[in-house]
Design goal:
The chain is α/β, with parallel strands linked by helices. Helix content is 45%, strand content 10%. Helix 24 (615-633) runs antiparallel to helix 26. It starts with a helix and ends with a helix.
Amino acid sequence: LLGVHLNLLRKMEPVTVLLPFDPTGHSPAGEYAQQFASKFLINEDEQAETVRSPDSTSLAGARLASLYDEDSRPQPMEQDRITLDDFQGAATEVTWAVRRAIASGTDPKEICILARDLSRYGPALEEAFRMVPGKDGGEPVWTGSLTTPLRRDPVVHDALVLLQVVSQDFPRGPTVELLSTPRMIWQLVMGSEPAAWSPDGAAVDRWSRRAGILGGLDHWIRDLPREAGFVPTWNLETEEELAAATRRCEQAGASAQAVVHALAGLHKRFQEEIPTTWSGHADRYRRMLELLPDRTELNDLLDDMANLDRIGDDSPVTGQEALSWLEQAVDDSTLSPQSRDRGGIRVLDAMQARGLTFSRLYLIGFHAGSFPRIGREDPFLDDRLRRQIQDELGRPLASRLGDGGEERLLLALMLGSTRDDLHLSWQRADDTGRAVSPSAALREMARAVLGVPDTIRLHQERVRRRSVHPHVRLAELGSDTGMLHPEEAHALAAFSCEGTAPDPAVGAGSLGLSRQTLAMLQATERFRFGPTGWDGRVGPMGDRREFQWSTTALEDLGRCPLRFFFRRVLKVEELEGELSPLEIAPVDMGTAVHKLLELVYSDLNETGSFAEPDAPTLVARAGRLLDTNWDTAFRRIDHRVADHLRPLWRIQESIWKEAVVRFLETDLTRLSDLGPLTIDIETYLHREIDLGDGVTIHPGGKFDRLIHQGDTVHVADYKTSGRLGKRISISEMLKGNQLQVPIYHLLAEQRPTVELLGVGPGYAGPESRAEFTGFARDDQFEGLTETLRVLAGLLSAGLYPIKDKSPSCSYCAYKAGCRINHPPTLEREAGSKDSRDFIRLAGKNSFKNRTLLHDLVQEEGS
C-alpha cells in the first residue's frame, strides 16, 4: 500500500509533504524519515525547505533533536510538568492514567492517552472508563483507535460455539461451554419446558469429565445421566453419607436427563440434509443463530458467505469448509466501538497519533516488549527479499525487523505532541506478577528530563514506584486524582479503620458493600500478630463430644484443615481433570476393583466357603466368581471406553485381571491357613472413642473386610495405589497425616490387626501387604490420642488454619482459594495461639521424647 499511496501522490502534483525532520541539522531520531524522503519523495535536484514555528509550544521543544545523540546534553525539563511512574499490571497503569486525565479539568479533546500498541490494553481501558461515572451517570465519552477482535464479542463467541457443537456432533468442551452461556435461548429448543429453564453448565462439566465423554450425541444421551446418577461409594464411610449421596445423585440424574433432552432437541432442530453451497450453509447458520441475540456483524459475514457462490466453482462445499471460512472471517474482523469521533478523551496508538498535538499526554506502556516494538521477520517474505523488491521496483516495502529507526522517530513524535504536561508510565511487572523491564528508550527519556542519559539517577530522583498493596494504592489514587469508585472507597475505608469496625456509611455509593465485606478487607490485608475471623476461624460448630466424621474426613483434617473446610464444610466439589481418550481415571479403576472383590468375597462367604477353608477349592471357586462378576464390576469403565478405547482397554483389562487373580491366590491361601473364619463384607461401624481429657469422638468407617478368628479380629482394606508402608508409619500417624489405619484399629473394641492389601499390577511380593498390630510403646498411643484431641479441638472451635506449604499445594484443587502465598496471612498465622498445637504436630515422630506436644514445647524452650 505504501507504493500505491506514493503513486497517487506523484499523480496529484503539486503536493506539499510535511516531514518530521530538520534537513539543516543532525537529528538521530529523524534519520528514518530523512532517509525515506531522500529515497522516495525528494528528487536529487530538490531541496527540502525548513519550516519553523515562530513560537514553538512543544513541551520537549529542541530536546527532541538530542534524542539518541550521545554527545548531546540538553537543558533539563521543568520538574512540575512531567511525571514518571511504574506500576504492576496493565489495569493499575491504565486506571491511573484515566483518572488523572479526567481529574485534570482540561478540555477532554486536548487530552490523549497514548501507547505504542493499544491491543495490550483493550480490556483494561474499557474497565477503567467503566469505573468512572460520566455525564448523566453513564460512562465518560472517549474516542480512540482501539480495536478489539470480533471473536471477543460474547454473542459472536457463543455463535461460533453453537455452530461448532451442531456441525461437529457435540464435542465435549464446546458443548459444556454452550450449556454454560446465559445468552442461549433454550426455550426455542425445549418447547414445553418452563421458560426459566437453564442448564447447570458447571455440573455438566463435572459429569461429562467423569463419564469420559469426548463427543457424539449418542455418548451424551447414554453416558451423562448414568454418570450423574452414579453413587461413588468408595469414599462413603457411613450409612448417612450413603443415603445423602443417593439423594443427590437421583436429583443429578434427573437434571442430566433434561440436559440430554435439550441436546437431542438441538440436534433434531437442525438435522436436515447438510447443504452443499455457500448460500445454503449461510441460510442454515442463520436459522441456528436465531437461538442467540442478533449480531449485525455476523449477519454481514453470512451475506459475504452467501455471495461466494457467484465467484466460486460448482464443486460442493462441505460443512467443515463453511465453518472454517466463517471462523477465519471472524478472526480477521475487528470491532472499533470508539472509532467514531464523539469527542472526549483521545485514546490512540502511536501510528494514529502522528501529527496530532495535545495539551496533556499520558504515555503508557513504556516497558520492554511494548516499546520499542519487537520486530518479527515475515516467514514468507523476509527482509532480504523485501530489500531486493524495493531496489528493483523503486517502491517502499516496509522492513519487518528494521534497525529501530522507525521506533526512534515515533518516540520523538510522541514526546513532541504534548504542549503542557507529560505523564510517562510503564509496568515493572505484569498482571500475573511476572517481572517486566523498563523500555531501553528510558535512557533517552533521562536525557530529555535530566539532561543526561542516566536511568539510575532518573529512578532515584523522578520515578515514583506505585505500591501494589491495596491500602497504599487506593490511598495514593484517591489523593492524586480525588476519584474513587464506591467499591474502592469502601475498601479504603476498611483499610483505614485501625482497630475499629469500619463504618458502612463511609464511601457509600450505588454499590453498597456489607459490613462483613468491609471487615474482611480490613482484616485480611493487614500485617498483625495473630489470626482474625477471616483466616479460617469460623467459630464453634457444636460440642466436640458430639461431633461425628468419617475416618477419611478426619484424615483430610489432619493433612490440611483448610482443605477439609473447603471440601467437607463448604461442600465445594473438586473439579476432576480432563481425561484424554487413552486414559482411565485411577479412582474409576479402584472403584471397579473394590466392587469386584466385594462380589467375589460376599459369594464365598454366603456359601460357607470360609467355615472349613481349603486353599485350592477357595482359589478355584474365586476364579470362577471373578469371571462371572468381572463385567458387572467393570461395566461403567467398559461403557465409557466402548467406542474409542476398546483395543487398549482389553490390554489393560488383561493386566489387571492377572493382578487380581494373583491377589486372590495369595490372599485366599493365607486365609485358609488361619482355619475357620467368620467374615463381614463392606461393614459400616461407628464407635465412641474416649481420647482422654474429657474428649470423646464418634468416628465411623467402612471396612472392606472384618475377619473374626476366634477371639482375634483382622480388619482388611484394599488399596489399588500408593505406598502401603507410609500408611502404617507411626510418625505419619502422630503428625496427623495418616489416620485411617489407627482409627480403624480403635474402632473395633478388640483392637484388631489392620491389614492393607495391595491389589493391582503395581503390587508384588512383600510390598503388597502391610500390617499394623498396634503401638509398640504407651507414649506412641498417647501421642496418637493427643493428635486426635488437637483435631477434635479444631473442629469444636471451628478453626481451619493454613498448614505449612507442602508439595501437594501445587496441585491442590482448592489452591485458588488458599492464601498460602499471601504474606499478611502467613504473618498472622505465625503469631496464632489457637492453632499452635496443631502446627506443632508436624514436629512429632515415633522416636522417644518426640511423641507428645509437651516434649516438643520443652525442646523449643531449651
